[in-house]
Amino acid sequence: MGYKFRYAVLALLTVFVCPEVKSEITVGVQDTNFRLFADSQYELDITVSNRSGSRTEIDLVWQGNILTGMSENLLTIDRGTIRIDLQADSKKSIPISLKIPPSKIRLQYLLRVEAVSENAAAKRYFLFDIYPPADFSRFRKKEHEKKAGVYDPDGLLTGVIRKEGFSLTRIENLQQLSGFHGSILLLGIDILKGEHPSCPIIIPLIEGGMKTLFFTQQPVSDTTFEGKGFTTEKIRRFEYIVPDISKKTELGLRAEGRKKQRHYITPFADGFFMSVEQEEGSNISLEVIPCGKGWLFFGRRFLAERYESDPLLPHILKSVLKMLDNL
């Protein structure tokens, strides 16, 4: 099979590749975002439903293959079969385990599931993205501690910092915050929520040239910034884009007040931020407001809250930190 044709086929292999057809048997998967950590074992429930009016014995067969953009062959790493007995108009969840290999590049995992009874059959394909660990070596260097600090009184960022081993100045109180002279500040508080006592300290630091990142659950509007010293007229919005691993893309990334930067995205790249217009209901990953000589970056709180359960989020955070570091 030719390279281009193979990817034309793979482009169709999403959750809906083999849609359920009206049948006495159906199969599906539960509770997954279709993203996996490399070098891990992932527990998954396959749901089998018997929609017939009688008790049925069903053979459930599954097979897992690793796909890469460099190989025509599919590497089978998981397979299994089990016979289940289902009463009429009932369903059952079957736990299976997927063995995800270590990798330094982004891969894909194709799970094929088939359920067969004497009178009916159902087949589904499910495609998962496998993410390697994000490379934070740049932010673990000892010299990075001199320019980057974290103020996290509520512990929101504790798990993230511990897992990635960031080299940061730990700021424990408002007095230390007012005396911080670095250029990057990570905040574990939502400075848009109410009148936080740190705001009178943080805003002058940003105006003086500091780049600050915090996370919020609030929808952003003009009223969100009233009385806080920011203007939404210059707000820039960026959406995180995961590239198609089957092709190369060249994009320009713009930030307010910066020259255009060219980013060459090769296959298996982590992803990148692209400037977008905000639309109702759109998933904006990062918003940036210039303030004096500095910048205020804010993303969604779930990036920190779900950090250890979603393999895409470390790559998003790495891209945010690179933007902070490069401005």
Describe the SSE topology.
Layout: H1 3-10, E1 25-30, E2 35-37, E3 40-50, E4 56-67, E5 75-86, E6 90-100, E7 107-116, E8 121-131, H2 144-147, E9 148-151, H3 158-164, E10 169-171, H4 174-178, E11 184-187, H5 199-207, E12 211-216, E13 236-241, E14 249-253, E15 261-265, E16 272-275, E17 286-291, E18 294-300, H6 302-305, H7 313-326
Parallel strand pairs: 2-8, 9-10, 9-11, 11-12, 12-18
Antiparallel strand pairs: 1-3, 3-6, 4-5, 4-7, 7-8, 13-16, 13-17, 14-15, 17-18
Describe this structure in words.
The chain has an eight-stranded mixed sheet, sandwiched between helices. It is elongated and about 75 Å long. It contains seven helices and 18 strands. A hairpin with a 7-residue loop joins β4 and β5. The model is unreliable at 1-21 and 246-269 (pLDDT under 50). With 327 residues, it is an alpha/beta fold. It folds into two domains: 3-131, Immunoglobulin-like (Sandwich); 137-326, Rossmann fold, CATH 3.40.50. It has helices at residues 3-10, 144-147, 158-164, 174-178, 199-207, 302-305, 313-326, and strands spanning 25-30, 35-37, 40-50, 56-67, 75-86, 90-100, 107-116, 121-131, 148-151, 169-171, 184-187, 211-216, 236-241, 249-253, 261-265, 272-275, 286-291, 294-300.
The gyration radius over C-alpha positions equals 24 Å
The helix/strand series, from N terminus to C terminus, equals HEEEEEEEEHEHEHEHEEEEEEEHH
CATH fold-level topology of the largest domain = Rossmann fold
CA(first)-CA(last) distance? 45 Å
Strands in their spatial order, largest beta sheet: 10-9-11-12-18-17-13-16
Tell me the number of helical segments per DSSP (H or I, 4 or more residues long): 7
Task: Give the fraction of residues assigned to helices.
Answer: 10-25%
Question: Biggest sheet, open or closed, and with what strands and sense?
Answer: 8 strands, mixed
Number of domains: 2
Q: Report the uncertain regions.
A: 1-21, 246-269
Q: Tell me the β content.
A: 35-45%
- Total number of beta strands: 18
Instruction: Indicate the overall shape.
Output: elongated
Give the integer mean of the pLDDT values: 78
Query: What structural category arises from helix and sheet content?
Result: alpha/beta
CATH class of the largest domain: Alpha Beta
Architecture per CATH nomenclature, i.e. the level-2 architecture of the largest domain: 3-Layer(aba) Sandwich
